Records
---
Amino acid sequence: MSEQSPLILSGKTVAKATLMRTRQEVQAMLAQGHEIGLCVVQIGRCAASSIYVNRKEARAKKLGFISTTLRLPEDVSEEALLEQIDALNANDGVHGILIQLPLPKHMNEQRVLDRLDPKKDVDGFHPINSGLLSQGRGTLIPCTPKGVMTMLEHYEIALSGKHAVVVGRSNIVGRPMAQLLEKSNCTVTICHSRTTNLEAHLAMADIVVAAVGIPKMIQGEWLKEGAVVIDVGINRLEDGTICGDVDFESASKVASAITPVPGGVGPMTIATLMENTLRAAQA
Ligand code: NDP
């Protein structure tokens, strides 16, 4: 067990730095007479989604983007939504489009996301953007894993030749995370719900990224001494508190560096969305 406290990787600090960098580039574009438009599409009025949508809109406005939210009723048809997406694709004043997920059950999420103009897909979920990422030449990269890479870079965590274990293989977090780490010359293992003996994989990991959605699943005893632990999980417990997928208390006795939840990866997601919107406008 490590006697030293781990380095706490603060997403709040890195998000602030990322937003400051983005703001400088935005100011330069605005000074040249360019405008940057972001449209968030929200279907229904789910309270949790509304919080995220409002935060994104507020942050975008603060940066100087023209930020709009297209709110459609819960029972809007998929066809009507696709027509709205076509209109946003054709609108030169809109550089970034974000469809707030999850969509209502009557919609086919893949069909909806596939309809976005890949150049405006600031979430990086379109198959063209996933394909470019898998070839190592992505520009619109999913915000959460890209934000994790920004954090690792900020804290100068060495990646080349390290063994990274990513737990989770979703298109939003786990899979692109693994691709980005591999691009940075990590040797990557991807674990998922059918992985047998997760603990044996984690015991060999220099870097662990947890993106599972199970509160405090990963225990400190499973980790290698000195591992760098990135906890992407955001889980709300019955008492209303938020925790990650890693048991922070036991993991911080072993890790050399660890992200807290909240205040770790979370703030990076919105900051990276703003960065992606700027990149879409610059393209
Ligand atoms: P998904 O539910 O889409 O994916 C979860 C992944 O975990 C799947 O690949 C699943 O495997 C795997 N998994 C499930 N159970 C186990 C298990 N027992 N052992 C190993 N792997 C398992 O979730 P997301 O990727 O969207 O999100 C993951 C977490 O990250 C959630 O807590 C979410 O709230 C959080 N999140 C945080 C964000 C942030 O801004 N910080 C942004 C996005 C997500 P399989 O593929 O086999 O089903």
---
Amino acid sequence: MTLLYKADPERGKQWAQRFAHKAPDIAFRLWPDIGDPASVRYLAAWQPPDDPARTLPNLEVIFSVGAGIDQFDLSRVPPHIAVVRMMEPGIVEGMVEYVTQAVLTIHRDLFDYALQQRQRVWRELPVRAAATRRVGVLGLGMLGTAVLERLRLFGFPCAGWSRSAHSIEGVECHAGMDALDAFLGRTDILVCLLPLTDATRGLLDRHRFAKLPKGASFIHVGRGPQANQQDLLDALDSGQLQNAILDVTDPEPLPESHPLWTHPRVRITPHVASATRPETAVDVVLDNIRRHRDGLPMLGEVDRTRGY
Ligand code: NDP
Ligand code: OXD
């Protein structure tokens, strides 16, 4: 029985070492060296081959090496092949760090101080108490929940929005489209941690930005196509939005000539907010393989009707 790895080759080498140590009974192969295609039962991939069922006729499970699975064309994956997203502690830790630094950057006026520094201006700005800065997170899944649990410790009034109803201690939880406007209306710093689906593509447009309080800020760590970038620029230029920190864009990489690169109120990172860590991810995949062999549900199995 073989697990085939098809993603970043450097990380793949670390996966190979861990598999050799922890699961010597499972043959580990690094794409494109697939060996006998018929022996591949498990695929760990950022992007599967175009026609996975034909390339790997006995494939049973595709593990995404990321938390998102929108990069998979599910129409090419027959229903008998399970699709599992990555739910592992390393990716959570990285996202909590990234969003915390982004919220604090905005909260402690570091955009304004960077602009002042360029002009060699030494001027104090009034410090606002965390209790007066309302943070709102779109998406209350593995990542959104962990981020809110950390942010609320700073004293920010925290809220979240999801499809189904949730209850998180110290967090005002909103659910469904009918609740979106009220959630946006109480949010000074908006964080997007939604999966990309038909329902979330283009969700953040001029109408939604207009529902935020004037001067709100936006942190985008979900997927680029969830936000309309022209509407985002317009909202920044009009002052409806004060700052944006973007880890994801549409397309990626962002073209060199794109005006977001040089906007003084925008910070961009190249989709690095968080990534799977081999040292923790392999344990999760091995546990899921055991579950699959025992006929148990796997952690992170994707519901194809919802698309995440
Ligand atoms: P989960 O599947 O655990 O959570 C998704 C959340 O989004 C759930 O709360 C879900 O609601 C909510 N949601 C989905 N669709 C809708 C909708 N139409 N309306 C309202 N709420 C909705 O995902 P994760 O937390 O693990 O990851 C979220 C995303 O973060 C990933 O899909 C990926 O795109 C992005 N990501 C980005 C990274 C980066 O480096 N920038 C790294 C890792 C992930 P409900 O709870 O009701 O199901
Ligand atoms: C992911 C990502 O989905 O890195 O894990 O974006």
